[in-house]
Structures are given as structure tokens and as C-alpha cells.
Design brief:
By secondary structure, the protein is mainly beta. The protein contains no helices and 7 strands. It has one domain: Immunoglobulin-like, CATH 2.60.40. The strands form 2 sheets. A 4-stranded mixed beta sheet has the order 1-7-2-4, with no helix packed on it.
Length: 103
């Protein structure tokens, strides 16, 4: 199983409390394998949501932006599937990170 590291954003206290916005997280692939599917579901969900990179693979060294609609949920479980059949599953707080690196 590969590791995922979250790069933390500025503290939320510095964020403007203005209008609700979608959250964007940069998914950086440093695994040495191509990510062929990527899922993110609210933690505790019974099923995975749709493949967030459907139709595009993320080769090692590449970055893709995944967007999350503002729903009040911050706690997500990420699942990355690789071209060699392996997978990584990790919990991420999308409200406190700008980027996630998959190693």
C-alpha cells in the first residue's frame, strides 16, 4: 500500500468567512505508478462516489485538481487505484489541505 501525505494550508482562521466556495485539492502522484481511478467519499459513507478522474490517468510526476462542492463536510476518504492493481485508501480533511501527495 502506498502512502499519501497532506500538505497543510494556512490556518482556517486566516480565511475570509465570505460566501461558500467549492474546495479544490491538488492530487500529486509521486507513487511510481499511474493512478487510473480516484474516488473521494465522505468519511463513513457506505459506497464510493463516482471516479473523480474518469477518462484521464494521472502518471507519476503529474498533478490533477479534484474539486469538492461546499457541503459543510470536510472529512473525506480518498481511494486511489493504480495501473498495477494496487490501491491506497486514506482519510483527508479537505478543509485544511491544499494538496495531497501519493507516494
Amino acid at each position: 500500500m502506498r502512502a499519501i501525505h497532506a500538505l497543510f494550508a494556512l490556518p482556517m482562521l486566516l480565511a475570509a468567512p465570505a460566501m461558500a466556495q467549492d474546495r479544490a485539492v491538488q492530487l500529486m502522484n509521486e507513487s511510481g505508478f499511474t493512478i487510473v481511478e480516484f474516488y473521494a467519499s465522505a468519511q463513513g459513507a457506505a459506497d464510493w462516489e463516482e471516479n473523480m478522474i474518469a477518462g484521464q490517468a494521472v502518471a507519476t510526476g503529474e498533478t490533477v485538481t479534484v474539486n469538492f462542492a461546499e457541503s459543510g463536510d470536510c472529512a473525506y476518504t480518498f481511494r486511489a487505484l493504480f495501473d498495477d492493481g494496487d490501491e491506497t485508501i486514506v482519510d483527508v480533511d479537505v478543509c485544511s489541505v491544499d494538496a495531497v501527495t501519493i507516494n
